[in-house]
Amino acid sequence: MSGVSGAATVTYDDIWRGLTATSPMGVASTTTWHSNKDLAVATDSSTGQRSTTIYDPDTDRVTDTYGPAPAVCFQTSGRPVANPVATAGCGITPPHTASQYDGTLTGLQADYFTNTRNLAGVSHPGVSGERFAGVSPLVRGVR
Description:
The protein is an all-beta fold. The chain has strands at residues 9-12, 18-22, 28-33, 40-45, 49-55, 62-70, 96-98, 109-113, 136-141.
């Protein structure tokens, strides 16, 4: 293929986080990292496209991802501008994926089983957290 030669190149910062990557064809991307955490917050391509990642400030879990879309579609926070469709150079609503962790969690979920030898069958009906005579609790998981 004409115009393609060499190898891919990658640059890193002083703590080995990838900053730039360039393919042999010259397609490049740049990753922006959180100022004091090991969290990638944006990736920009040499074609002017940007993808961003928003994290929960307490847990550092991903809550939202946006893009790819033209870089002008985004605020410095990583979220889209107020009206991206009307923004010059943007013209689209950036794709969005939201993640929710334990969104409807109101506490631990416990199920009670009368057959404690092999924990088979249907759990004992009753109010969560209430103990019944001769029934052992088994915490099946968090809902």
